[in-house]
Amino acid sequence: MRLYQCWELYMRNRLRGLALVCLVSITSVGCFLQVTIGREIIEDVSDFVDAVFTAIDTHATLGLCTTIGGTVSCQYFVNGVPITSTASMASELGLILGAIADPMIVELPAAAINIAGTYDDGAGHTGPLSVYPALSYVPVDDTHTLTPGPGRQLAIFDLPAGAPIAGVTYHFGLTFQQFVPDGTGPTQVKALMSAKVTQSGKTFYPPMLPCVSDFSALPSITIPRSAVLEPLTLPAGVPCVNKFYGYFRNEVGPSMACDLDNDHDIDRNDVALIMAVRNRAASPGDPRDINADRFINANDARACTLQCTKAQCNP
Asked: Is the same domain home to 247 and 285?
């Protein structure tokens, strides 16, 4: 039996609301996930204080970030209530924030295939999301990496470069497929929102909502199989306070695009991560597409082999 699963996600730039409703048929699963995500960047302490009171008074759901003192710090609010998911990021190189619309990192079954996404604001801005599936590692900062649980994979869903952000409400469609035996129970997935940081040519995805360091700390979202509408609720956020992400890679050497497992060297382990997904098309920005030709193949593996930091690409 083919089991087809679909999420619908809506994104708005400033105020966010959370709801989850699932429509399921006997042979398929479809989920509608409404999450409006945005972040407001503030550069003055007094403005930040005013923004906090405004968020509380208006019962807003948003993230407020400051760029004060050489770091980026973010505080989230849900319906005007501060939640314990705060993080700061620091770099002596000058931090570069990515799109205000946070990328999503989703943990899916390893058997999930045809992972894809689309965006549409209903006003002419539409197209495929940049999707990086079958990831074994997602770099968080210089010393931390996200990995999937056993039998799972990670996929990053991100707006493509050039997609407008400010004042836009997006309709996202996230889809994947998997083949399962008859009688298979509900499918469980996990998801978080991250920032997107680029330093010295390497892209990092620090978790922001919630700012966990391990997917095992996240509760699962269960997608049932049913012939009727199934109301679901998103699991409560996992508390974390004052999470710190550091980007000082140049202290130990230049950032290396081929360092896919984020262990500060290039070796056969990194080459193996490319070969594991060789001969497939890639979205722009996929970290395994080393030569940026929109295809992952032996040419990318060869390019990294030439950059190995030890003889014979030894770990």
From this structure: no
Q: Which helix H or strand E contains 127, and what residues bound it?
A: strand 126-128
Which pTM value belongs to this model?
0.80
Distance CA 225, CA 178 (A): 14
Query: Do residues 260 and 247 share a domain?
Result: no
Q: How far apart are CA 202 and CA 200, in angstroms?
A: 6
The answer to whether the CB of 153 falls within 8 A of the CB of 135 is yes
Give me the CATH number covering residue 307.
1.10.1330
Q: What is the pLDDT of residues 155-212, one digit of tens each?
A: 999 888 888 766 666 777 777 787 878 777 788 889 888 888 887 778 899 888 788 8
d(CA 205, CA 145): 9
Rounded to whole angstroms, the Cα distance separating 183 from 181 reads 6
The rounded distance, in Å, linking the Cα atoms of 35 and 62 is: 11
Q: Are residues 182 and 300 in the same domain?
A: no
What's the maximum distance between 2 C-alpha atoms anywhere in the chain?
A: 61
Same domain, 189 and 297: no
DSSP SS3 for 103: coil
214 and 306 together in one domain? no
What is the domain count for the chain? 2
- Cα distance between residue 295 and residue 46, in whole Å: 48
Q: List the helix and strand counts (H, then E) for the chain.
A: 3, 25
Give per-residue burial for 163-179: e unless 16+ CB within 10 Å, then b. Answer: beeeebebebbbbbbbe
Q: Are residues 157 and 269 located together in one domain of the fold?
A: no
Task: Please give the single-letter amino acid code of residue 43.
Answer: E
pLDDT at 168: 66
